[in-house]
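Q: Start with the shorter request: fold the first protein.
A: Done. Sequence, then structure:
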Amino acid sequence: MKVLTIGSDANLFKADSPVAGRIKKYGALAEELHIIVFTKQGYQNTRLADNVYIYPTTSASKIFFIFDGWRLAKRIVREKKIDLVSTQDPFESAFLGIKLKKKFGIKLQIQIHGNFFQSDYWRSRPLFKIRKHLAKYCLPKADGVRVVSRQIQESLSQFKIPREKIYLLPIHEDYSKYLNNRPSFDLHRRYPGKFIILWVGRLSREKNLDLLIDSFKIVNRKFNQTVLLLAGEGPEKEKLKNQAKRLKLESAVVFYPWQDDLVSFYKTSDLFVLCSKTEGYNRSVVEAMASGLPVIMTNVGPAGELVKNMVNGWVLEKPGVLEITSALVTLIQNEDLRKKIAEQAAADVQKLPNEKEYLALYLKGWQLAQQG
């Protein structure tokens, strides 16, 4: 099978990035895998593996992504005799996929990695109404729709997609290192006598970290031996640092850059918290679970599907300062509950598909779309 995918992740041009590593494995499932990436100028065609080729649109502006992508896609489909197109969102790239399906008669899979249609965060974004109209036009015409969580699957009921065309397959990562590896350092040596609360990810607006810091202010007032570690980078970093400073939390809220050794962070912290407004899946939650770290999270991504409230985690139905504060205080005070949900979480992660099983499921998604 020759597959063309269309998306916007420029990290594919970094050969050592996690997404490039995943794509190489997907490439092994196909005769050829060709990938168009919406980019601005400054990128070059790249051969990621023997049969995996990446093409940037090198557009002068975002408004030209679709036009430049269409030009590239037509040439690739003609020259490479593509069997299946797989787009990485239900919006602009899906629109290109529909045009290719109509012009060349090839099958189309649309992948959805974000909970775009149930989230107030996405509904408030500029151009959302236009993008939703694109999704309404594209999704019913696809031969297959892959979603990464049950919440996303449920959100598609409004689009009148035949249920048999929707394929649920969460994002996969090799969690064995979090299950089995020993930490190379102990955060409690850096923060002796402290209760360590950890967050890991991209410091961006949808992660709701201002709400987390406001909640932590109350927690820290009650338990002054608590510390909040935020590991990651992103556009909100300076704003969040200023918030911590304004709340006089400079020594209690500590910012770390991206970490190569997250195992040690997960395994030597006391509690993990995620308070995002929206998530497609969220690997950090699963990494924390695999590491035996108890998790508090908002009702996003794997909540309700992998993370079950009071079984292997704490799921907040209506996140707010009081709700987050209450959950943090309860778990800080209740070591037995922390231990119970952490042990069950690690056991549940071990039941997830291994890499070989996952790749077989990924290929099945392509095949179902091709047969659709």
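Q: Next, the second protein, separately.
A: Sequence, then structure:
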Amino acid sequence: MTTGHNTLTGADYSSESVFKRERDRILHRSWYYVARADPLSPGDRLVANVAGESVLIVCDRDGTLYAHANVCRHRGAQLCAESGPGPKSSISCPYHAFSYALDGRLIGTPNVGPNEIDRDSLSLWSIAIEVWQGFIFVNLSENPPTLLEWFDMHPEASLLPFAHHNMGELRVGRRTVAEVNANWKIIFDNYMECLHCPQVHPELVDIVPLYRSGAVVDESRDDGGVSLLAGSSGFSPEGRSVMPLLPTMTPEAAETYFGMAHFPNMFLDVTGTCIMATALHPTSATHTTMITEYLFAADVVADPNFDPSDVVDFNELVGHQDYLVCAIVQRGVESKYFTHGVLADKDSMIADINERYLAERDG
């Protein structure tokens, strides 16, 4: 029973001081999902906004990834303004041309004598980075647990149950970006319930019949999945797609959808034809950038006739329906009259995540 539980307060969803606190205590101390690794080639730079902290991820010649604070140790200039290709051996500051090896070591100081500064002590500030099955995670805290240890600490949000899909072998076939005028927790809460589904997602409930009841979990199953319309293969119009099944999928398995929310900023949606990885990038108390990468088998993406439009268009439709109502909620919770809302039984997953959120933010 969830009866008696409240939502977070209006300030929790709209206050910049609350956002600063959760940024410092949650977003910068968690294994934060950034993006897929497979689009990166040697020399590529990936600039990520990790809740207000610019993180520079670089790819070495052998494919090793390094993450650093995106700031020069000399006078504080930002090293890279945007993602893109770059030299395969070094990072150069656009201000005074100080240069760094991709692993962060200071290796060049033009017009500065060897005895003027201690190069060995001026490596870039490195950030913990791990790649699991092609997904890039960073952690801005000092001496964090490993990512696998993190999964063990939080089994309810672990991605390990999906390891059998060999997602490291999949490739990004399409990438979309949405700017949402809503707090990241409103978006997270929305993902954790389906009471809104009959009202907001008429197309989705047509292919996931359970969602018509407002339930997000099928209590008759012990695997966390929900059944699609008979004969369906994924999230696409009428549940049928021209895309082939993923290599790890059978026609029977493809009739089930699995969703996982990795706190604090990742949604993973597994269907028969596609796996969708969505990163939530909070930029303020009232705005979140949503980046979704659509994963398919490598040979499917490489096909000159590759066209995932039916899958992508359907999922973008559902996503934008969610983003619209999340923005409506954001406007509402900023009212002086909104102290908190209430949670029904079908909102139990929100109650659970709010408990974890408050423990990490205030503990």
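Q: Describe the second briefly.
A: The chain is about 25% helix and 25% strand. The chain has a mean pLDDT of 96.
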